[in-house]
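note to self — DONT lose this again. spent like an hour looking for the file last time. sequence + predicted structure for the chain T wanted, 408 res
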Amino acid sequence: MLAQLFAGSKRPAALLWIALAASSAWAQQQQQPPPLPPPGQTLSPDQLDDLVAPIALYPDELLSQIMVAATYPLEVVEAFQWTQKNQGLTGPALTQAAQDQDWDPSIQALVVFPDVLKRLNDDVTWTTNLGNAFLAQQQDVMDAVQRMRQRAQQAGRLQSTPQLNVQTTNENGQPYIDIEPADPDVMYVPVYDPVWIWGPPLWYPYPRWYWPPRSYLRGGLYFGFGTGINVGLFFGSGWRGWGGWGWHPGWGDRRVIVNNTFIHQYNFNARNLGSAHGTSVWSHNPEHRAGVPYANPGLRDQYRGNVRQTVAPRSIPEGARNAPGQSSERFGNRNIPSSPPVRQQNRGAFGGMENGAAANTHAEHGMSSLGPARSAPMQRSAPPQRSAPAQQSAPPQRSAPSGGGRRR
């Protein structure tokens, strides 16, 4: 058609080249990811779908933990840098060292999954936005996860495997898709590019993570798995399978349920738990926000009661603060050294993770192979008061992107 269009021209080759170049530029422009919405804007269902896509097919336990951990993005950065400095730790030694860090329990337990922690650190803007959305629109975020699972299942790209059990359950008369580890002791995290499952993002950009080369596995599965993590080796013989993990989704009422017994038994920060045993509904602890601004005035007002803990400066190790040749970025109320570049490798999500030795046997209640559980909370000196942030006018409404409606 283009050849016919330029057949009568004296310079058909040049005109044809110009037309092809313009067509290529247009195609590249069409493939550009959508821009981030203005800070504090309530996200639409379409935007939330794209936001949660990279983790929507993770096992329920890890998915819940990530959504909670994302509300503390500075601690994600600190935990990743800490693991980089302590790569020799594994098994019980790793979890015991993590319990001494003053992080939220969701961050402390995340060190067991170093490559997941790395991804959350690799695009901390995406991680922060996920946490902000979960704080402001928790029920909507969990609904988005279910929508993306349903679409993947309907497209034949989500089904049970030897690593994961996928099943549909009903809560309060509503069907939900559960994804659980098939092995009670081993966690396999799916490794997939969301483009393989749902196509390119139309409403919200995917994170800048390293995606492995596209692969097609037997049975129509469009993702692979990293090396399994034997969680029992990190938590000792008191481990009772994934039913005892620290975080679970309550799909019926769209809440995250915290297993207080897990946090207390394995010696993680339990000072804000109402009880040392049983379960409770998760609630955000602004003490671990560490000065990272909340996305909108409503959240700032909601958590202002703990503003002194929230803005308290947290010390950064001297070696990390002044490492030669290392740049830093502003995050929250202080500068955080940028992470050292990591060489790209074509490997699974948990490549290179060592199993370590099995932990020793101990009793369950308040004791584990990690030592005695915490009792009284640590005392902190009161930091100086800081004035409340200035109120910002509501951002203008953004119209839906032109062209190419929602993918089906």
